[in-house]
Design brief:
Structural class: alpha/beta
Distance between the termini: 34 Å
Number of helices: 31
Radius of gyration: 29 Å
Oligomer: single chain
Helix content: 25-40%
Strand order of the largest sheet: 6-5-19-18-17-7-8
Length: 985
């Protein structure tokens, strides 16, 4: 595609200068009033599209009414296959929950697996586990889709061809004899990150039999936090951030709320702190110092934009201010910022926390530990324990990827086993890992997919999914978790522990027996209790008393060129989840990009180079280069580029291959996540990017995502403050809901708690069988998500402030969609739900054009008709799979309401609205969503709706929505202590 004209940044500046008060915007194209943006909006909103003449309108309406009657009379054919013998404990339509866990970068994510008729359909967070409290991240929930992925490896392969386990066992016996003869000399094993005691025990048996074997671990984006602890305390330790106790949190390039294996733990604790502050119990200040936008920066009370060299100066100066050391030379605004921040930290000593990103160098992280020590935070807001990850086996430290590369270059490797990792794709390009694998006498890869490493190995063996095997490991808080299978293996696969036992000559090893042997200290009653709960109580890691040594943080000079940050993608991480359509199509929290990665650049640099979204560029540093599309990132440092990993896959599956570009050419073994001195050059052509930022735009008279000062928010609302067409807020809740005493369902979303993580979006998709449509259809505005999380900016593009706004169906009392439907396919239920009658819908899309919130989704095609039978097994049987030509939307999880209603009738009791949760509410790590009965004072909704924070979206339209919001809270340092030179974000 040809290049387009650049955006008019001068016009953007003039428009912002002319505005009075806060200016909210969603994209630079909107600010510039770009013609392509206006055209897209006109196509998206039927109300401003070209109108039909009266004659044609009446013709179509007449046909619609006729066909609508026919559609409502028909019934889809069904085929029922009864059980010959009813399976024990399986009741048709009844949901059963099993506690288990899935792995993410070595940390287990505790979940409850929902099964129906013996078939797993959804993963929820384990409500009993202290690390998640019932919440689950988007990545964790998508593990259920991975279980049914038809591209998962299903049988062994030898040199790319299908083989059998028997053939592998025959060849492995010969290699086992060679290893026995040499005591394992030349045998090298590369592992992904693991915290599993059972796997560690199997590896100890390996070393006992082959003591000359060498073990390595490789986790591409783990960071250097163990090395930092070793520098500060003399030994590697695990850091534990107690965010619920931190009234002041200062983060240096540390996206604590962003995607990762510890996201739910951190978000849950941060949300607890915010709720306490909202109730008047202390403060909850968050200060972010970063070079690129992040979720933590978006929720920060104050955000300072600084590149690596500037952050180094600020941290050294802060260390000197608090630890009485030599201070670097600073600009005036930097000096002011450091003095004010040091004063604030001292004022919150013992109740504050300073953190640095795990992918920063070890020295800055060690300096941060020293700061926390001096501030009295150790043992309060920050604690340490023994490492949760396996860093040594049988007293032998696990080597790193660099040491394995050195052994490969020296010819020391005769046999290599790559277990649950993909170095041929994930290793830095300088390692030339694929070529090294080809030169080995024998190489074995074991994983869930036939990926890049598998294609360069002699043998590939399929590993079982975590939901198919017994396993164990540690959660992010150190709690031991037990994972039990929810289903028999769907393919000829084995677990990692079973595979290691097989290679030792035990082909009949069973993962259940291995797990029970590991935890033989538990008696049968304790074992059963642990399986039921999914974790072992009372086994949290013991805190280690430490004192940080003084740190001499070396200065970092800003080199010429750009600084490049290489980060894992928010959804598909390092590519291990790239074949999951739910995650590929999930709009990234800040950019709203789907199905691809891009080179993020600051708007001012884009203006200087004449770039706009989708234009192709080349980034080169020290001989490594990538080519891809560019995306403009408001709030990014002008001298910094950001790229996301996980794309450019060459092998894995039909969803993963062909999306985006590979970033590994920029990585180096010594600098895997940050490069300096990069050059950027525009190229000819553009790449179409599927960005949803401006899809489903609402026209609002007031700010959609609102903020209130904390002191004002605590005051009760008055009737005079409400719109005149609303009745005054009653002093007490009405005694009953509807005329027959039905519940009055409603939802409340707390914008102060929402971090924009998108866990709710995936939960809704999994619960309600929402289809994946692909990049082309997403770009056309046809994504089917029932719940979207809008991202709004406020302020200038160089340093904007961010706000998130989850938008499900509002379930309006005066619903425009109900008035617009010609066949009564959308109706108002007795409990206040705006309901869809799918077999009446004839697809006129009138309801979508009438809806001011743009929450209705139309099935332009049959999205699911070609899905393999394996994928169809994941679908929720309690939710209809919609066909082509049908409108759909959020239902408040009406199937869950119906289930609760049936249980209440069988027990002759009212519906327990306090325990009834929608899918989005259940998974939210910060508890930002509350659902319940508006007519009950104990539902958790009523008293919050009487505060000044409460408001309705587009309330000027008088739609009377059941879904309402609590405004975010304004907080920060006092005005006279606010550091200069910062930006709010």
């Amino acid at each position: 595609m040809s290049r387009r004209d650049p955006l008019d940044f001068a016009a953007i500046g003039r428009r912002l200068a002319e505005e009075r008060g806060p200016t909210y915007w969603r994209s630079l194209e909107e600010l510039a009033e770009d013609p392509s943006f206006v055209t897209f909006c006109e196509a998206e909103f039927p109300s401003v599209a070209p109108q039909l003449d009266r004659r044609r309108f009446l013709q179509l309406m007449g046909a619609s009414l006729a066909f609508g009657g026919l559609a409502a009379c028909g019934k889809a054919p069904e085929t029922a296959v009864p059980y010959v013998e009813q399976p024990e404990l399986i009741v048709p339509g009844e949901t059963r929950l099993y506690a288990t866990a899935v792995d993410f970068a070595g940390y287990l994510q505790p979940v409850l697996g929902r099964t129906q008729a013996g078939r797993p359909t959804k993963l929820e967070g384990n409500s009993d586990h202290p690390a998640c409290r019932g919440a689950a991240s988007a990545i964790t929930q998508a593990a259920i889709l991975q279980l049914y992925d038809p591209d998962r490896s299903q049988a062994p392969r030898y040199k790319g061809r299908d083989a059998s386990w028997e053939a592998f066992l025959g060849e492995a016996a010969g290699w086992r004899e060679r290893w026995d003869a040499s005591a394992g000399q030349g045998l090298h094993l590369l592992l992904g990150a693991s915290s599993s005691p059972t796997l560690a025990r199997e590896l100890e048996r390996w070393l006992a039999r082959w003591p000359q074997a060498r073990l390595y671990r490789f986790e591409p984006y783990e960071g250097r936090h163990y090395a930092a602890a070793e520098q500060a305390f003399g030994r590697p330790l695990e850091r534990h951030l107690h965010l619920e106790k931190a009234e002041l949190l200062l983060c240096f390039e540390d996206d604590l709320l962003g995607s990762g294996p510890q996201q739910v733990l951190h978000a849950s604790r941060w949300g607890e702190r915010r709720r306490a502050a909202a109730e008047g119990r202390g403060q909850a200040l968050l200060i972010a110092v970063e070079s690129c936008p992040s979720l933590t920066g978006a929720k920060a009370s104050e955000r300072r934009i600084a590149n690596g060299a500037e952050q180094n100066r600020l941290l050294r100066a802060l260390l000197a201010e608090i630890d009485d050391g030599p201070a670097p030379e600073l600009a005036a605004d930097e000096q002011h910022w450091v003095r004010r921040m040091a004063a604030a930290l001292r004022a919150h000593a013992g109740r504050c926390l300073v953190s640095a990103g795990a992918r920063s160098d070890a020295a800055p992280q060690a300096a941060v530990y020293r700061l926390n020590d001096r501030l009295g935070n150790l043992g309060h807001t920050l604690s340490f324990s023994a490492p949760l990850q396996q860093l040594e086996i049988g007293g032998q430290p696990l080597g790193d990827l660099g040491q394995l590369c050195a052994a490969l270059s020296a010819g020391e490797v005769q046999s290599l086993l790559a277990l649950d990792c993909n170095p041929a794709y994930q290793a830095p390009a300088e390692a030339a890992f694929a070529a090294a694998l080809e030169a080995l006498p024998w190489c074995l890869h074991a994983g869930q997919y036939y990926d890049e490493t598998a294609s360069h190995s002699h043998w590939h063996l399929p590993l079982s999914h975590p939901l198919e095997a017994w396993h164990d490991g540690l959660a992010a808080d150190g709690t031991p978790c037990l994972g039990q299978p929810l289903i028999e293996p769907l393919h000829a696969t084995r677990s990692a522990s079973e595979l290691l036992a097989l290679l030792r000559g035990e082909p009949t090893a069973d993962s259940h027996a291995q797990l029970r042997e590991t935890w033989q200290s538990l008696d049968e009653a304790a074992w059963r209790a642990a399986l039921e709960r999914g974790f072992i109580e009372g086994r949290q890691p013991t805190p280690v008393a430490v004192s940080a040594a003084p740190v001499a943080l070396p200065a970092v000079e800003a080199p010429g060129g750009y600084e490049v940050l290489i980060r894992p993608d928010e959804a598909i991480w390092d590519g291990r989840f790239a074949n999951l359509g739910w995650l590929q199509e999930l709009p990234r929290p800040l950019s709203k990009l789907t199905w691809s990665n891009a080179v993020a650049i600051a708007p001012r640099q884009a203006e200087r180079l004449g770039l706009r979204n989708g234009d192709r560029v080349r980034v080169e540093v020290d001989g490594g280069a990538i080519e891809g599309a560019v995306i403009l990132a408001p709030g990014q440092h002008p001298d910094v580029l950001e790229v996301r990993a996980g794309y450019g896959r060459r092998r894995m599956g039909r969803v993963a291959v062909g999306q985006g570009f590979d970033v590994t050419p920029l990585r180096r073994l010594a600098e895997p996540w940050r490069r300096e001195g990069a050059r950027l050059a525009p190229l000819d052509g553009t790449v179409p990017l599927a960005i949803t930022q401006m899809h489903h735009s609402m026209k609002a008279e007031q700010a959609p995502a609102r903020r209130l000062p904390r002191e004002v928010a605590r005051q009760p609302a008055t009737a005079a403050e409400q719109p005149s067409f609303y009745p005054a807020t009653p002093a007490a809740p009405p005694p009953a809901g509807g005329p027959l005493g039905e519940p009055r369902w409603g939802m409340l979303i707390d914008l102060d708690q929402c971090i924009g993580c998108n866990a709710c979006v995936v939960a809704c998709q999994a619960e309600n069988n929402v289809p994946v449509v692909g990049a082309e259809q997403v770009a056309a505005g046809r994504a089917m998500h029932w719940l979207r999380v809008d991202h709004y900016y406020e302020g200038s593009p160089e340093a904007p402030r961010s706000s998130f706004l989850p938008v499900p169906c509002m379930h309006c009392e005066h619903a425009p969609c109900e008035m617009g439907c010609p066949v009564n396919a959308t109706v108002h239920g007795p409990e206040g739900l705006n309901q869809m009658v799918y077999n009446r819908c004839i697809g006129t899309r009138t309801c979508a054009s009438y809806c001011p919130y743009k929450v209705r989704r139309f099935n332009w095609f049959d999205w699911t008709g070609d899905d393999p039978p394996l994928l169809q097994a994941q679908r929720n049987p309690n939710v209809t799979v919609r066909g082509r030509g049908v409108m759909e939307k959020c239902t408040y999880c009406v199937q869950r309401i119906s289930e609760a209603r049936i249980d209440a009738r069988m027990g002759d009791r009212p519906i327990a609205s306090q325990t009834l949760q929608t899918a989005c509410q259940q998974t939210c790590p910060t508890q930002a969503i509350v659902f319940g009965d508006l007519s009950r004072a104990d539902s958790g909704l009523h008293y919050q709706r009487e505060t000044r924070r409460h408001y309705a979206l587009l309330e000027e339209l008088n739609t009377r929505p059941r879904t309402t919001y609590l405004a975010a809270l304004e907080d920060g340092l006092p005005a006279d202590e606010t550091p200069e030179g910062r930006s709010d974000g």
